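Entry for tetrahydrodeoxyuridine complex. Fields follow.
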Amino acid sequence: MKKLKLETTLDVFDSVSELPQDIQELMIKAQQAREKAYAPYSSFKVGAALQLANGEVVLGNNQENAAFPSGLCAERVAIFYAGATYPGVAVTSIALTVRSLEHTVTKPTPPCGACRQSIAEYEVNQKSSINIYFMGETGTVVKADSIEVLLPFVFDNTFLK
Ligand code: THU
C-alpha cells in the first residue's frame, strides 16, 4: 500500500481591492448579478460572472423553485448559458459571490459539488484551466487556478472511452 498525497494551493486575497483590476471588475459584475437572484426560499443569493476568451462576460444567479430540486445554482445557470451561447469559446475566469438576507456572509463561499463537476466538464473540453475566485458578501477572496484544485480526482469523459 502506498499513500498518494495531493497538494493544493489556493491564493487568498484580503479583500476585493487586492485583486487584479480586471478581476475586481468581474467580481463587481458577479455582485450585480447576485442581487437579481431568484432565491425566495433560501434567502441566499449567489452571483456568478464568467470571463470568456472572446471578451464576453456571461452572468448567472441562482434560480429557485417551489419544487426545491428543480432550481439551479448560479454557476450552472452561467456556465450552461455560456456553453449554449458561445460554444467552443474558452472560459478564462469565474467570479462568485453570495449574500444572505439573514446574516452577513464573510466566509469565502466555494461552488457546490454539482457546480464543480459542471465547471470541470468545460475546463476539460477547452484544454485550458479556469481561474475561480470566490467570496462571501464581504471580506476574503479565494482563488483556485483550476477546477482541479477544488475537485481532485474528477470524473471526466476519459473514463467513458
Ligand atoms: N447555490 C448556488 O447558487 N451555488 C452554489 O454553489 C451553492 C448553492 C444556491 C442554491 C440555492 O438556491 C441557494 O444557493 C441555497 O443553497
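NOTE: The mean pLDDT is 98.
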